[in-house]
Amino acid sequence: MDGLQTDDVAEKIMAAIKNVQKNMTRLNIMVMGKTGAGKSTLINQVFSRNLAQTGVGKPVTQQIRKYELEGFPLAIYDTPGLELGGDNAIEELLKESKEVLTRGAMRGIEESIHCIWYCVSAPSHRFEEAEIEFIKKFIDETSTLCVPVIIVLTQAYSKKEAKELMAEIEKENLNVVQIIPVLAQDYEIDDEYVVKAYGKDTLIDIVHNVIPEALRNTLAAVQKANLKMKKRRANAIVATAAAAAAATGAIPIPFTDAAVLVPEQIGMIASITGVFGIPIEKATITALLSATIGTIGTTVMGKTVVSGLLKLIPGVGTITGGVISASVAAALTAALGEAYIAIMLMVAKGEMNIKEIETAEGKAKISKIFKSKLSLKRNKQGVSEEKEAE
């Protein structure tokens, strides 16, 4: 039988997903601020694992602890509050923080601190002299390490008061990337009024802009506050895979060699899964395949599947001469990728449980999305071709 068995492809995708996750560069963030500044709440509401609630932080200095979970490419370096005891406590924290940053920089990107969040509780209405002194000294003494610092105004229930505090801090002319107010979770004032959470997605966008490119897929994967970012990164993956498939399809490919398109699609699905950071099992991948390119037959990108799928694309009909064109290869790959992104977004939003993909209803939903994406791709291409002909 032509092509690869769906089960075999699912195995390959699972192996590729594990490889993507294993090779993600760990993102290291240091979080500073006074006790009660809402650091733990911020961390747990921004990231898709409750690192600040594990209670198993590993000490890296006398005061600084490192929180991480096995298999999750994120480490949080948590510093103690500055109010532990006058000037000596501030000097000790400054010394230990510099030690962690310097040691990490010497060990390379995997161990470097990539970003620092300095948390200030907005309801306090003040940025204390001790904090100003600490940040100025810290930035001055670590300037050669070029670690970006973001001041996060936490617990910002009142946007007006947060803006007033932001204006006061800006007067200090601190060399920080940005000052941003954040309310990490909804705040209920009474039964009739709730202040909705805000600012987390903006914080993630700021972090995205200041960290190295090699860490941006990791950031997209570990955070849960900015789904638009996940979608952007996933769309870029689909575009790359579709272009690769088009390059493969640009040279006439006999049916017997049509499975050469599979590696692009395997890598694409694995990378999208990595970006969304959603745990997935082989049965779910198998269901995805059977609901999309597997609906036509038992092979993936073999003669049976390709011939059947082309019937779904308006105006294509069948392959002439037993070849796949660049446009068809790109359309199939892009439709599969975009359908998968749509499903992952539903899961991330809580609109669909990941296990629902394995049900008949879930498969029907995926199949409908895939066929819709495939028709849309072909229709767009048809319009483009007409314009070129003109």
List the helices and strands and how they pair.
Layout: E1 4-5, H1 6-22, E2 27-33, H2 39-46, E3 58-59, E4 65-68, E5 74-78, H3 86-107, E6 115-121, H4 129-141, E7 149-154, H5 159-170, E8 178-181, E9 187-190, E10 193-195, H6 200-210, H7 216-222, H8 227-250, H9 262-276, H10 282-291, E11 299-300, H11 303-310, H12 326-348, H13 360-389
Parallel strand pairs: 2-5, 2-6, 6-7, 7-8
Antiparallel strand pairs: 1-11, 3-4, 4-5, 9-10
Helix pairs in contact: 1-9, 1-10, 3-4, 7-8, 8-9, 8-12, 9-12, 10-13, 12-13
Q: Provide the β-strand percentage band.
A: 5-15%
User: How is the CATH topology of the largest domain named?
Assistant: Rossmann fold
Which second-level CATH architecture of the largest domain applies?
A: 3-Layer(aba) Sandwich
Helix and strand run: EHEHEEEHEHEHEEEHHHHHEHHH
What proportion of the residues is helical, as a percent range? 40-55%
Total E-strand runs: 11
How many distinct folded domains?
2
